[in-house]
Write a structure and sequence with these properties.
Elements lengths: L1 E6 L18 H23 L4 E6 L17 E3 L19 E7 L18 E6 L2 E2 L2 H10 L5 E7 H10 L4 E10 L2 E4 L2 H15 L14 E7 L2 H7 L6 E2 L4 E6 L2 H17 L7
Parallel strand pairs: 1-2, 1-4, 2-3, 4-7, 7-8
Antiparallel strand pairs: 5-6, 5-10, 8-9, 10-12, 11-12
Helix pairs in contact: 1-4, 2-3, 2-6, 5-6
């Protein structure tokens, strides 16, 4: 049994405001330890449940946040940017039996701590076939094309609720309860580590590959907070404006869909001007 962990940081234990997740800040340095604790707890739990191998894919910002030296020695970690499938890199190789979304959050325009989709701001909403989409929803459709089930999701309580829509059978662990976008009632790392390890142990039993699910075509719509961003991203082939601040494109497979989404968000990010967006 081989498990892939897609590790994001905004949904980690104790994380509630930008300084907690922005590389180089004192708070980020502190919160890296709690982020690593969440991930390591999942690693240990999956091994408790019978996993033979656990691979972690760093999925936050620079993708260089986790403290490798504090992880269980049985784990392996893919760290760094520029990967074919970004947050779920590694699922495409055909040897993954189950995936965990650790430290996930709700999507742009939703309630939830750090609610966003790929970009920390600028995007006010993303829809997949007319359903408002979080990163979890998008990534779940990608991994389904490789026959890999989502078996565990951790984050705030609303991220766990969101996961009911795209991974109803997965184990969910809320490490904090949403109060506002930048406030939460947080559990301690000792408690969340115990909860995540226990859930991962059970989730290992769900890690059974199934037949690939090709649910396309997929229409992705993205709404920005400024008109010029919608204009800028239409340089991506197939991306068309459907409103003053909104664009859309259609892909037959989510493999292409998520790669196009990455291109759209990269170009939009580059088009944001300091102060005025």
């Amino acid at each position: 049994m081989k498990i892939l962990i897609s590790a994001d940081m905004e949904g980690a234990t104790g994380v509630t405001w930008p300084g907690d997740v922005l590389p180089g800040t004192p708070q980020w340095e502190r919160c890296r330890g709690m982020f690593t604790s969440d991930v390591d707890a999942a690693v240990q739990g999956f091994f408790d449940g019978g996993a033979d191998a656990v691979v972690i894919n760093e999925a936050h910002w620079s993708m260089r946040n986790l403290l490798l030296e504090r992880l269980d020695e049985r784990a392996q970690m893919l760290t760094g940017r520029h990967k074919e499938l970004s947050m779920v890199e590694g699922v495409q190789h055909g040897d993954i039996d189950g995936i965990a979304f650790v430290g996930y959050h709700t999507g742009a325009g939703m309630e939830g701590v750090f609610a966003h989709t790929y970009l920390p701001n600028s995007i006010t909403g993303v829809w997949l076939n007319d359903v408002r989409a979080s990163e979890g929803l998008l990534n779940a459709h990608v991994v389904a094309e490789y026959g890999v089930p989502v078996v565990l999701v951790t984050g705030d309580d609303l991220a766990c609720e969101d996961a009911l829509g795209y991974a109803p059978e997965a184990l969910k662990v809320a490490v904090k309860d949403h109060v506002s976008r930048y406030a939460a009632v947080c559990r301690t790392p000792a408690r969340t580590a115990a909860d995540i390890r226990a859930a991962a142990g059970q989730a290992a039993g769900l890690a059974v590959r199934h037949e690939p699910v090709h649910g396309g075509p997929f229409t992705v719509a993205v709404e920005f907070d400024a008109e010029h961003l919608a204009m800028a991203v239409t340089v991506v082939p197939g991306v068309e404006r459907i409103g003053e601040r909104k664009v859309a494109y259609t892909s037959e497979r989510m493999y292409e869909g998520i790669r196009t989404f990455k291109a759209v968000t990269t170009i939009a990010s580059a088009a944001v001007e300091e102060q005025y967006g």
